[in-house]
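Entry for the shared binder. Reason: the reviewer on the internal report wants the predicted structure included alongside the sequence.
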Amino acid sequence: MKDELQRNARSGNPMAHIQHRYQPDYVQPPGKVLEEILETRDLSARELARRCGRSPKLFVEIIAGKAPIEPATAMQLERVLGMDASIWLNLEAKYRLHLAQSAEAESFASVKDFVHRFPIGELVQRGCVKATQNDTDIARELLRFFAAGSFTAFRERFDELRTVSFRHSPTFKSDPEPLLAWLRLGELQAESVETAPFDRTNFINALAQIRSYTNQDPEEFLSPMISKCAEAGVVFLLIKPFSRLRLSGVARWLVPGKGIIQQTLRHKTNDHFWFTFFHEAAHLLLHSRKALFIDGEKLPGDDKEEAEANHWAASFLVPQHELEKFVSAGSFDLESVTTFSEEIDVAPGIVVGQLQNRKAVPWNSPLNHLKVTFEWSE
């Protein structure tokens, strides 16, 4: 199953627009250039000041790098020395930028450990950040990837993860840094996907059509599934997780009229894939548009919403009154499960998964072979 399909041949490399330019370690101060010109012409700073009608102190400070070349000064230098004002201002701008970058590089030393908790190597492999061994450049690449102007702003955004709603799987733990990077990949891809404004009725109708795809292979269902969601105002993304990230899916709102369902292939079986999709869809339909619902971790206070999403997803996939009648009959052999799944028009692996969740059949049941395994394509 190709995670590249989620780009729909529309978004391409999410960071392809970024250009990386050579940045020298040293930039000559404009005052040094001015000093060299004055020496060549045998002019003193005092004489230059007299010709420009300015204080000698100003040019002494410019030469020493203590005062900037302002636009008015640049125009005067153009008239007296014959070098365009734009050149002086460009020299000044480059020098001040260099000073700011140098100061920033020094400040990055305090966030080195934080930066390296992110999956930098995997982000490089996916073309999201530039390959570099320099810690300062790595920090800048990370800020660029997250569209954050500073690490102060970035940490504020990072801390927001600790206040969102999560769904928990007690046997798995995920580090927050790979999670944030994975969520950012979803944002970048979702921004480039055109959707209709979200419409609840259209989305429910789309979900009914998507349910009929559960017996199909990914190569058949992914493209129409993505299209149906987009027509209803939802972006569906299938994005491979980072190595230290264990979760199934996420539901959230990019903007008020554009929802996102972002999934992995955790457990790699069709019953888990489809249940996760409809679980996340339930969050979009039932719960706050300000919340971020993540299947894989937990914060306090989310049990009610998760129970609602679980019940909605289970019922949408397998009508619960039909399942209860089937369970009451007590026959769970291959033929009966297959026949029942055909009657309700859903993949038999999904029925097996729900029977196991009800403890009607064991987790190691021979019926597990009815579940279809999905794999990432390299």
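Summary line for the report: Residues 163-370 form one domain.
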